[in-house]
Amino acid sequence: MSNKKKILILILLILISCAISLFWGINKSNIGYFLPRRAIKILAIAISSCCIGYSSVSFQTITNNRILTPSVLGLDSLYMFLQTVIVYFFGSRTLSMISGYTNYFLSIGFMVFFSLILFIVLFLKENRNLYFLILSGIVIGNLFGGMTTFMQVVLDPNEFLVLQGKMFASFSNINEELLFISLLIMVALFFITIKDYNMLDVLSLGKEHAINLGINYKYFVLKNLIVISILVSVSTALTGPITFLGILVASISRELMKTYKHTYRILCSVLIGLFTLIIGQFLVEKVFSFNATTGTIINFIGGIYFIYLILKEAKR
Questions:
Q1: Sign of the C-alpha dihedral, residues 276, 277, 278, 281?
Q2: DSSP string, 185-231
Q3: 309 Cα distance to chain centroid
């Protein structure tokens, strides 16, 4: 089966899942209430899947590794650290009272600033290689995770319950005003990177081959790392962290799209992410009756798949 046919099948599955998700249980008396709210969820899911799909595939190409995803940079840990610091020092009421804009831009600002410091200091000034940067991200991410856990342990249980809502990705209570901002950022980055797909194809040959073929390696990698950090920050600040979705969509898209072309692979990963999140949200609402979150389900499935990938790579 050709790649185009696979893409069309994915689009068809997404349209069917969207229709089910939008119109399940709707009648003339409640359509005005449920339909707009469900449409907002679908839009938020689409933004998250686009951000995670592009960032995961391009990050694996840049690092030339099939297992690594942008989560190793520690941005998810930094996001949770920031939310925990607010509750720990200022109380859960502050976290509840600050506007969506404030928390959104504060989270994105800190995550992007942290990424820039990491990239510029370790990748440019110190002239380190990319793997040293990734290792540093893992160590710093674990540091943030440890400090976050320490503060959460000593928190009042009632305040921890408020913080717990930020620990897992959820599409049930999306701020509509932030959707438009996230969409603008995503579209702007799409136009910035649309010409990079061919260079990603070349970079997949390896660093040395890419340099020999005329790619400014450091500039191109730094530019894409910054774009990746912004996309991950936008997705995390909008809906919450989904650690294993990236490895899930990137790996499945590589298996489905038997091609080196990133146009197909990135599109496929976005579509897989969209379909997965729509189905996950539907299960949360209709099967689990909101007793679980979408992020929990995705991380459970993605974690199992991640273990499978590690065992598979170890046999090679």
A1: positive
A2: HHHHHHHHHGGGHHHHHHHTT-HHHHHHTT--HHHHHHHHHHHHHHH
A3: 19
DSSP 222-288: HHHHHHHHHHHHHHHHHH---TTHHHHHHHHHHHH--SS-HHHHHHHHHHHHHHHHHHHHHHHHHTS
Among 229, 223, 192, residue whose Cα is nearest residue 107: 229
| Cα angle 292, 296, 299; round to 5 | 160
pTM over 0.85: yes
CA distance 74 to 248: 18
Residues 219-245: pLDDT tens digits? Answer: 888 888 889 888 888 888 888 788 788
Q: Scanning the structure block, which residue is given the tokens 């990698």?
A: 221
What torsion, rounded to 10 degrees, do the Cα atoms 224, 229, 233, 235 define?
40
Contact 88, 222 (CB under 8 A): no
Per-residue CA distances from 145 to 79, 118, 162, 233 (Å): 10, 17, 18, 17
- The full set of domain ranges for the chain reads 45-314
Read off the pLDDT band of 270 (50, 70, 90).
Answer: very high
Contact 241, 295 (CB under 8 A): yes
The CATH class of 45-314 is: mainly alpha
Count other Cβ atoms within 10 Å, centred on residue 158.
8
> Lowest-confidence range among 20-24, 47-51, 69-73, 127-131?
127-131
CA distance 270 to 45: 10
Amino acid type, 24: W
Highest mean pLDDT among 8-22, 65-79, 249-263: 8-22
